[in-house]
Write a structure and sequence with these properties.
- By secondary structure, this protein is of the alpha/beta class.
- It is built from 13 helices and seven strands.
- A seven-stranded parallel beta sheet has the order 3-2-4-1-5-6-7, sandwiched between helices.
- Helix 10 (187-202) links the parallel strand 6 (173-182) and strand 7 (207-213).
């Protein structure tokens, strides 16, 4: 499995943060040294891990150069986290100097050797933050909900991926499309599975064999500052995320 992986989709509500935190926790449970990076100004990754994201330095200060990444990373029972908050929403306007696409990569280079894996949670947009995630990563996972609009978001990522590969990171690859909130008994879910396979071919990837089943525990876990694996380890989604990690490790 690639060492640095970004979880990405420009559409919100497809389970990016849930996927990121679940993979972080699953890796931690297997005794890997893992860092989660929150590039979403909503700060959901840090909040879901139980951090006070409003009263601490974040990835914004790190990328701005006013804080040291080694002092900003916070330890949790789920894994280490480089948090974010609403200040990062100014990134598109504020980070405008030449080389801004490499801000995150340059910072992660300072701590990469301390970790076995780094998982990046991206914002629901194709902006300078997303570009930074793609430049810093070796691979992408694209989660989607079983909805037609979710498919539209994926197809629009292709041009951004190709641009990053052409100018910044030629080795970037898409590990696969991950179906979240999946219920195979619903006709729409089965239809979206077929359509997502077509989109996967356009991205030179595949739909991952593992599907994350829908459950209320996915929505409950963040309120307790936990991942779904720590909150409900025997639930269907927890077992699915463990299976997802097994699948990713075999790619």
């Amino acid at each position: 499995m690639e060492k640095i992986i970004a979880i990405t989709n420009q559409k919100g509500g497809v389970g990016k943060t849930t996927t990121a935190l679940s993979l972080i926790n699953a890796l931690r449970l297997r005794n890997y040294r893992v860092l989660g990076v929150d590039l979403d100004p909503q700060g959901s990754l840090g909040f879901s891990a139980g951090l006070d994201i409003e009263n601490a330095d974040t990835v914004y200060e790190v990328m701005k150069g006013s804080a040291d990444i080694r002092d900003t990373i916070m330890s949790t029972d789920l894994g280490d986290v480089l948090p974010s908050n609403i200040l990062l929403s100014t990134a598109e306007l504020e980070f405008n100097a030449p080389g801004r696409e490499y801000l995150l990569k340059n910072e992660l280079d300072k701590v990469e050797r301390n970790y076995d894996y780094i998982i990046i949670d991206t914002p629901p947009a194709l902006n300078v933050l997303t570009i930074n995630a793609y430049v810093a990563s070796g691979a992408l996972i694209i989660p989607m909900a079983p909805e037609i609009l979710s498919l539209l978001g994926i197809s629009q990522i292709r041009d951004t991926i190709n641009t990053v590969k052409k100018y910044y990171n030629p080795d970037l690859r898409v590990l696969g499309i991950l179906l979240n909130k999946y219920n195979q008994r619903l006709t729409l879910n089965r239809e979206v599975l077929e359509l997502s396979s077509e989109i996967a071919r356009k991205l030179d990837t595949k739909v991952l064999d593992t599907k994350i089943r829908t459950s209320v525990v996915v929505a409950e876990a963040p309120a307790h500052g936990e991942s779904v694996l720590s909150y409900a380890p025997r639930s269907n989604p927890s077992m699915d995320f463990q299976a997802l990690l097994d699948e990713l490790m075999s790619l």
